[in-house]
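Field log, afternoon session.

UNIT: design team B
ACTIVITY: writing a sequence onto a fixed backbone
BACKBONE:
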């Protein structure tokens, strides 16, 4: 009888207990993978932010506009490398209750500042030279079956078209991909000029500016300089790094990280008590059997290793099943349009998997160490006397 067969035989001896322990661990690591991936998806915007990218927005909040004239004033300031701007469009397609992420941007500069989008040169030129052109991400194009050359009407729930209604007729000029899996490809980009000239109000304003700096070490001075430049003006500004901006946006949704940490901590603490107690009971029930193993020549380290490996095997096998289930659940949820619009980068990341494996090893070590030590310390004669 080899060690692995003995291990399987021991942990599956009480089928009900084995099933309940396995089920509890599967649930725990399913939640860890599922909730942890949601948190990573919310945080991905901040993680992907470039160190040298700054956001200039209205001091009140980012929904308030800035005068278009601010662009040239900021663009000529020392330390500013590139500058572009964007305005929230409030987009939807056919269904007003299904909002899309859409911006009116400067087509000549936007993709120079945001270099994490991958687009064929021909499509880029096509988009830049087509005033009514629209650039869409791969995920959004696949969701609606859009192809390059299609004419569609995207609507805004914030602005009205001068010709009446809230629809903008556009031509799909390009479909972009992301440099990595966490880049958001569920967005659309219109030409700012087309948007500004055809909306009924606010034609001389923009939403916010995005700029890159010559040297990230000089970000603080540039941020202070920009905000001082527009102090006491009709629209004071607040300049932050892109990372701070994205984190602040996520925090508006609530303390997601705190909630997820609290839930997972409660789950793992309960699992620790249940599984630890269960393994201790298993060892106590096998006291006489352990005495027999010692009498047959099993050394103290072998006994310790045998009991500890049972706990490790239980947590690793159950945790792997839980993580696998969370992968399929996330994959299914990531295909739901409403979920895509909120968390476009919803996937089980390598860092989440690595953390989960570390927790499996830690949980197995904690729950198995004490029972293994007791088994190792048993006196052979006393163990054989017990019934």
């Amino acid at each position: 009888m080899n060690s692995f067969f003995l291990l399987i035989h021991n942990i599956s001896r009480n089928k009900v207990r084995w099933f309940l322990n396995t089920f509890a661990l599967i649930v725990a690591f399913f939640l860890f993978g599922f909730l942890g991936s949601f948190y990573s998806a919310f945080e991905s915007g901040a993680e992907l932010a470039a160190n040298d990218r700054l956001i200039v927005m209205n001091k009140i909040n980012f929904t308030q506009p800035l005068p278009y004239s601010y662009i040239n004033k900021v663009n000529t300031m020392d330390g500013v490398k590139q500058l572009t701007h964007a305005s929230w469009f409030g987009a939807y397609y056919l269904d007003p209750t299904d909002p899309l992420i859409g911006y009116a941007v400067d087509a000549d500069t936007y993709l120079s500042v945001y270099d994490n989008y991958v687009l064929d040169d021909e499509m880029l030129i096509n988009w830049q030279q087509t005033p009514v052109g629209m650039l869409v991400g791969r995920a959004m194009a696949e969701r609606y079956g859009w192809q390059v050359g299609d004419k569609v009407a995207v609507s805004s729930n914030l602005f009205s078209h001068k010709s009446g209604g809230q629809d903008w007729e556009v031509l799909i000029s390009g479909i972009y991909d992301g440099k990595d899996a966490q880049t958001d490809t569920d967005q659309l980009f219109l030409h700012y000029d087309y948007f500004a000239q055809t909306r009924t109000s606010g034609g001389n304003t923009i939403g916010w500016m995005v700029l890159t700096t010559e040297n990230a070490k000089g970000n603080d001075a540039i941020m202070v300089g920009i905000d001082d430049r527009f102090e006491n003006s009709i629209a004071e500004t607040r300049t932050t790094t892109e990372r701070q901006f994205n984190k602040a946006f996520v925090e508006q949704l609530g303390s997601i990280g705190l909630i997820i940490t609290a839930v997972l901590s409660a789950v793992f603490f309960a699992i620790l008590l249940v599984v630890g107690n269960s393994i201790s009971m298993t060892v106590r029930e096998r006291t006489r059997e352990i005495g027999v193993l010692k009498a047959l020549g099993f050394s103290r380290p072998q006994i310790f290793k045998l009991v500890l490996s049972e706990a490790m095997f239980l947590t690793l096998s159950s945790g792997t099943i839980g993580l696998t289930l969370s992968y399929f659940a996330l994959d299914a949820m990531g295909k739901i349009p409403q979920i895509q619009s909120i968390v476009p980068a919803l996937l089980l990341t390598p860092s989440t998997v690595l953390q989960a494996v570390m927790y499996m090893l830690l949980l197995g070590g904690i729950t198995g160490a004490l029972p293994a030590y007791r088994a190792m310390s048993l006196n052979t004669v006393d163990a054989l006397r017990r019934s």
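LOG NOTE: The chain has a mean pLDDT of 84.
NEXT ACTIVITY: expression trials, pending approval
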